[in-house]
Amino acid sequence: MAILGPVPMHGQQVPLLASGPGGGRDRRAAGRAGGGARRAPGAAMGRKLLRSVFMKGLASVVCEAVAAGRAAGDERWIRAEVAGQLAGDGQAITDRFLTGTRTHAVRRAQEMRDTGGYLDDLGVPSEITRASEITRASEITRASEITRASEQTLVRLANLS
C-alpha cells in the first residue's frame, strides 16, 4: 500500500494505491480513498516514487525561490508569482514546460547560469538552480538542429563539469 499524498491535509481521503498479492485485499480501502489496486508487486511504490520526483522537486524549487525572494526583499512578489504559475490548466503548463525546455534550451542554460550567480550574490544556496542549468545542457544535446552558437554554448557547459 502506497500513500500518495499528505495525510494531515487529506485525512481519510488521502489517495492510496495497492499492488502485489495483497492488493486485492486492500482494493476496497484504496478505492474508497481515490486510488486503485494494481497487480504487479511494487507497482504502488513505483508510482509513489514517480510522484516524489515531481512533488519533492517542486517543493525544493519553491523553497529555493522563496529564500531568494526573501534575501532580495521580494518574498511577497515571488510567492504570488509561484502561485500564479501553478494555478490554472495543469496539463497546459506541463506541455509548455516540456516543449519550451527543448525549444529554448540554449538561452535557458545561460539564464540559469546567471540566476545561480545572482543567488550566490544574495548568499542563497542554489543547488536546484544549478541542477536546472545542467538539465538545460542535456536538453541541448537532444535538440535536432544545433547551430554554431549552440555548439559553442554546449562546449562551455561541458567545461563547467
Describe this structure in words.
- The protein is mainly alpha-helical.
- The protein has two domains: 1-73, no CATH class; 88-161, no CATH class.
- It has helices at residues 7-10, 23-32, 43-71, 75-86, 90-103, 105-122, 127-142, 148-160, and strands spanning 2-3, 16-18, 36-37.
- A three-stranded mixed β-sheet has the order 1-2-3, sandwiched between helices.
- Strand 2 (16-18), helix 2 and strand 3 (36-37) form a beta-alpha-beta unit.
- The longest helix has 29 residues, at 43-71.
- Residues 73-131 form the Phosphogluconate dehydrogenase NAD-binding putative C-terminal domain.
Highlighted features:
161 residues; mainly alpha; 2 domains; three-stranded mixed sheet; 8 helices; Phosphogluconate dehydrogenase NAD-binding putative C-terminal domain-containing protein; 6-PGluconate_DH-like_C_sf
What is the number of independent domains? 2
Q: What order do the SSEs take from the amino end to the carboxyl end, as H and E?
A: EHEHEHHHHHH
Unreliable sequence segments: 144-148
> How many beta-strand segments?
3
Shape: globular
Helix content: over 70%
**Strand count, sense and closure of the main sheet?**
3 strands, mixed
Reading side by side through the largest sheet, how are the strands ordered? 1-2-3
Domain Phosphogluconate dehydrogenase NAD-binding putative C-terminal: 73-131
Pfam families: DUF1932
Protein name: Phosphogluconate dehydrogenase NAD-binding putative C-terminal domain-containing protein
Region (Disordered): 12-41
